[in-house]
Each structure stands twice: as structure tokens, then as C-alpha cells.
Amino acid sequence: MARMNDVQRIKGLDFIFKESDMGIDGFIGEAYAKTRLKDAEFVKTLYSKSSKEIEALNDPFLDLARRLYPESEVIKKQGEAFNARITVLRKAYIESLYAWKGAGLYPDANRTIRFTYGKVDGYSPNDAVYFEPFTRIRGILEKETGVDPFIVPDKLRMLFDKKDFGRWASADGNDVPVAFLHRCDITGGNSGSPVLNARGELVGIAFDGNYEAMNSDWQYDERLQRTISVDIRFVMFITEKFAHAGHILKEMGL
After folding, report:
1. 50-86 burial, b if ≥16 CB within 10 A, otherwise e?
2. For 27-37, what is the mean pLDDT?
3. How far from 133 is each of 42, 153, 178, 222, CA to CA, in Å?
4. φ and ψ at 163, to 5 degrees?
């Protein structure tokens, strides 16, 4: 960040580089060690303090927020000005969509609770090419290059080699499902949505769409567009076997 130009740089963070030689990692370590924001009772007292009193506390994270405030206010005002200008254009855009699609205008998920359904299914984007609906840990290992982000933790490789999957293995017991494709639309803000099976059981968590789904805000094609969800069995496997956080599963009644 220190090498960025004035337009790109967050000036409120300049003090980390100019006023100390700790660097980002050093600042973060020292800030977490010194801050009192970990104390709930201390945090409660902040609501009754003036800005000058809060500044006098010399808490590293409060000081960081104070330094970032001027730029955040500028960004906020820029956003307000943009929204004011774009409102008229948004109305014209929606009218254009209605003229194109008629009564079948595809709804979005803005500020609404949305429930959609669809079958787990792969797809064929090109001739003689077919993407299976499920990926597995084996695929993670196949993609390893040794260069971030394609680095496989030794522990995950060991668990795979030993086939130590516990109760989260696929039906053949040779792997763990990682992600799956299904015929549901997805848009910005849907990530993290629960995916349920026909019995109402949690089977996955939606987090992405395939390349062909990028225009699903305007039109959905069930032949090609898919939601990508992490398989809940992989979530549970990582929690129990990889992270040794079985106590979390016990709290969940699993």
C-alpha cells in the first residue's frame, strides 16, 4: 500500500508506514495487544464519552477509526451524490426491461426474502464438454501448484491419503463432496444462503455461480446457468476432522 499513488492509497493508513517502522503486521499485533475493545464493560463506557474523550484514550483501533473517518465521509458523500444522479436512470432502465420482457420481468433479490428451487445437475457449456455436478477433495489435490492460493495443507492431504473422512464421506467412502451445481439462480447478496433438500435438511451453502450465470440478473437459462454451493458434508468434515472443532458439532446437536 505504501507504494500506491495518491489516488489509490488510503491516506488514513499512512501513519503505519510514516510514523513507525513496524509495518502492517507489526501494527496489527501491537494494536490487538493494547486495545481495550476486547473488554465489554469498557466498550459500554464509550457511548457516554465525547469524541475528544475517546481520542484521549489512545486506543489503537479507536485511533485508527478516527484517522479513517474523513476519507470514509468523503466516500459516503460521493455515494449519496451518485445515487441522486442515478435514480432517474434506474427508472428508465426498469422501464426498458419491462418493454423488453413484458410482464415476465425477472425479479431480483433486493430487500426481499427469496426462495427458489431446482435440481442438482451438471451442464454442458460446449460440444463434447460436460461438467459433473459434484467436486471432491481429489479435485483440490489435482489443482495444487504449490503457489498461493493453490496450496493444499499437509493435514488435508494426510486425511485424504488415509481416507479418514469419518461420517462425511461420499457413498463409496473414497472421498468427500466439496461443492455441487444446482439449477437455482444466484445474484449478489445470495452468498451464504442455505440450500435445503426436499426434506428440509441443510445440504449446502450457496456461494457462487458458474461463468454462464453471470447474466442471471437479467435472464435465466436452466440449460447452462448453475448456482455453486459448498456441500455441507465438506463443511462438517473440515470442522470435525481438519479443525478438530467437534465441540461445535456437539453444540449443534450433531
Report:
1. eeeebeeeebbebbbeebeeeeeeeeeeeeeeeeeee
2. 93
3. 51, 25, 11, 14
4. 55, 40
In tens, the pLDDT along 150-164 reads: 999 999 999 999 999
Which listed CATH number (3.90.1200, 1.20.59, 2.40.10, 3.40.1090) goes with 134-251? 2.40.10
- What are the residues whose beta carbons fall under 8 Å from the beta carbon of 15, sequence distance 6 or more? 67
Q: For residue range 189-228, list pLDDT tens digits in order.
A: 889 999 999 999 999 999 999 999 888 777 788 899 999 9
- For the chain, give every domain's residue range: 1-105, 134-251
Task: Find cell 505504501 and name the residue.
Answer: 2
The whole-number average pLDDT for the span 48-55 is 92
Q: Inform me whether the pLDDT recorded for 111 exceeds 80.
A: no
